[in-house]
Write a structure and sequence with these properties.
Elements (H helix, E strand, L loop, with lengths): L13 H14 L69 E2 L1 H5 L33 E2 L5 E5 L2 E8 L12 H24 L13 E6 L6 E6 L1
Parallel strand pairs: 3-6
Antiparallel strand pairs: 1-2, 3-4, 5-6
């Protein structure tokens, strides 16, 4: 029995083609109808692999949302919070009163040793020439006294009694010694910075005691004015 073959140029019976297409649709109902006019057209998008599909996004208008990082020059840091004074608890239930001699009664170059301090109003005191040094610095008695220098307002001077006794009191001599110790340290720091080439202003050789005044921002704190 000979098998009849069709050459590449042989025509296919249209009736047989339609029957074949009908049988194919019964087996694959989702397949589109293929006609002679659609055999060489663009296939249906649902049957085109994703890698071969044409992009559908329009490039005519950029997107409103951008994932590009923001340059550093456009980033503004939030402002730092302002420094505020935290009120400290009262050292005494009674109002603190500073010795009047510490307000306007002492003649003293605070860069010199405390032995050079003088109190002209007590020069002829019957208790002795230096008795004023041992008077109470503040009343009532408190465990410590906080002082700021008017030219060094960031570092407090905390004055304590020399003795650690519970009933020890702060005297004028304690205040003078603490202030002199701090001024000497500040002078040394400025001198070292100047020697290292920093543009700092050195303390003058004479810085005179002008009196203690209450702090305007902190309770039970005093500021030493200088001349």
């Amino acid at each position: 029995m000979s098998i009849r073959t069709l050459g590449p140029d042989a025509e296919i019976d249209p009736a047989r083609r339609e029957r074949y297409d009908a049988e194919s649709r019964n087996l694959h109902p989702l397949l589109p109808i293929v006609t002679s006019s659609s055999m060489f057209t663009t296939p249906h998008p649902s049957f085109v692999p994703q890698s071969m599909a044409l992009p559908t996004t329009s490039y005519a208008r950029p997107s409103h949302f951008s994932f590009n990082p923001i340059p550093d020059i456009h980033i503004v840091s939030p402002p730092l919070p302002r420094r505020q004074c935290i009120p400290l608890p009262q050292l005494s239930y009674a109002e603190m009163q500073i010795n009047p001699l510490l307000v306007n009664g002492i003649d003293y170059n605070i860069r010199a040793p405390t032995s050079f301090a003088a109190c002209h109003s007590r020069r002829h005191s019957s208790r002795g020439r230096d008795a004023w040094r041992y008077e109470l610095a503040v009343h009532p008695t408190v465990p410590s006294l906080t002082i700021y220098l008017d030219f060094d307002s960031d570092r407090p001077i905390v004055v304590f009694p020399t003795h650690n006794n519970h009933d020890a009191s702060i005297t004028i001599a304690h205040v003078l010694a603490a202030v002199n110790h701090r001024v000497t340290a500040v002078g040394d720091e400025l001198q070292q910075a100047y020697n290292a080439g920093y543009p700092v202003q050195l303390l003058p050789r004479e810085v005179y005691w002008a009196g203690l005044v209450p702090s305007s921002t902190e309770r039970d704190v005093w500021v030493l004015r200088t001349d």
